[in-house]
Design brief:
mainly alpha; 5 helices
């Protein structure tokens, strides 16, 4: 049986939130440990529990301090190369969503124009029954299709 997708939202019931925190943090620590073993890398995790105000440190305080010192000795450029703050992460997500929106809008427009073509072919609708915008869009759409077909023929 597959798991259902977890709704990422604040868990209002305190006991459920505590239980989820405990299980998820244990799972996170286990995953980081496995990643370190499987990929022979060094990592650490610091988890702050706001309810008890205690820190969970993995693997141990001494190794965390050593890794932090090692990290801080790296040149600034190297340290920041793959770092993301929330703003840059959100900008990346927005840019991806804009690309996706453009793709979906283009696909929708294509479907609308295929519908216009269908109305002409199947229903015998005449050109004067369409708006100027629909005909202009249809003209551009058909020209683009012709160019794509010509390019495809040239490649063969």
């Amino acid at each position: 049986m597959t798991r259902s997708k977890v709704k990422l939202a604040w868990i209002q019931k305190k006991s459920s939130r505590k239980s989820t925190f405990k299980n998820r943090s244990e799972g996170l620590l286990m995953k980081v440990e496995q990643l370190c073993i499987l990929c022979d890398l060094h990592a650490f995790v610091i988890i702050y529990n706001p309810d008890t105000e205690e820190l969970t440190v993995w693997p141990n305080h001494q190794e965390v301090e050593q890794l932090l010192r090692r990290f801080m000795r790296l040149p600034d450029f190297t340290r920041r190369r793959k770092m993301k703050d929330q703003e840059s992460h959100m900008e990346e997500i927005v840019a991806h969503m804009q690309v996706e929106q453009t793709r979906v809008l283009k696909k929708n427009k294509e479907m609308e124009l295929n519908d216009v073509i269908g109305q002409i072919e199947r229903k015998g609708k005449f050109f004067h029954e369409f708006s100027h915008k629909e005909l202009t869009d249809l003209d551009s759409f058909l020209k683009e299709k012709i160019v794509k077909q010509n390019n495809k023929i040239l490649r063969e």
